[in-house]
Design brief:
Blueprint: H1 3-6, E1 14-18, H2 23-34, E2 38-43, H3 46-58, E3 63-67, H4 73-86, E4 92-95, H5 110-138, E5 141-146, H6 159-179, E6 184-191, H7 205-210, H8 220-231, E7 242-245
Parallel strand pairs: 1-2, 1-4, 2-3, 4-5, 5-6, 6-7
């Protein structure tokens, strides 16, 4: 495929990216739009979502902002209705929105636990279920779920987050098996330490970087490249997979 055509390899797709007002979600939305998708910047931070969408349009691509709190089912249903009004049925969904409570296990309250599961797991389930209606209507679809290296290896101080990210892997793999016969693919990305606002919580940057085999933070744009691979025909035979984008962090038993 030549470079002129490859830029438009997502042409014909309406994509919803949740949590797209910043960080990894923003990078994915920008990359998808640059490759021809019509993108919905779905986020609770509507002002930031509007800025991202405006910048994408200024670059000559298609994007619109939309408010959503994925922990609220009525929000998700309203999002689907808005997207259909703007662009039509959705063929590409990136479940990226999540909360990350930094708390020791003994400090996690019932409310904290419930909020994390409701957003990260139930919210992802419900977004997937709602937009699957569009994909079934179209006879094709592609869902990408953002897990984490924390879904593969435990990290202290993040018990609720670890559990939800592990659950998302099993959710995605089950969906992949059940939906394969419907021409719908489902895959997982498991990022490691990516240069987003989350890195601001790192107390000892030197030690943290020393633990990563590539000895640097990942960039949101690098995760977006993985998402582009999964969203495009390049990965046509890939479903139910978990692709790490973590600088080797999840591969090691003990840091050197």
């Amino acid at each position: 495929m030549g470079s002129a055509n490859s830029v438009q390899e997502l042409s014909g797709n309406v994509a919803v990216v949740t949590g797209a007002a910043q960080g990894i979600g923003e990078a994915i939305a920008r990359r998808f739009a640059a490759h021809g998708a019509r993108v919905i910047i779905a986020d609770k931070q509507l002002d930031k979502a509007e800025r991202v969408a405006q910048e994408i349009r200024a670059a000559g691509h298609e994007a619109q902002p939309a408010y959503v709190d994925i922990a609220e089912p009525e929000n998700v249903r309203a999002l689907r209705a808005r997207v259909r009004d703007i662009y039509g049925p959705v063929s590409l969904l990136v479940n990226n929105a999540a909360v990350i409570p930094f708390q020791d296990f003994l400090s996690v309250s019932w409310d904290d636990w419930e909020r994390t599961l409701r957003t990260n797991v139930s919210g992802t389930f419900y977004c997937s279920r709602v937009f699957l209606n569009d994909m079934l209507e179209l006879g094709r679809g592609n869902i990408i779920i953002m897990s984490s290296v924390n879904g593969l290896r435990a990290q202290t101080g993040l018990s609720a987050y670890n559990v939800t990210k592990a659950a998302l892997i099993m959710l995605a793999q089950t969906m992949a098996l059940e939906l394969a016969g419907r021409n719908i693919r489902v895959n997982v990305i498991a990022p490691g330490d990516i240069l987003t606002q989350v890195v601001e919580n790192v107390e000892d940057e030197v030690k943290a970087l020393a633990n990563i085999p590539l000895h640097r933070w990942g960039r949101p744009e690098e995760v977006a490249e993985t998402a582009l691979f999964l969203a495009s025909a390049r990965s046509a035979y890939t479903t139910g997979s978990v692709i790490a984008c973590d600088g080797g962090l999840g591969a090691q038993l003990y840091p050197s």
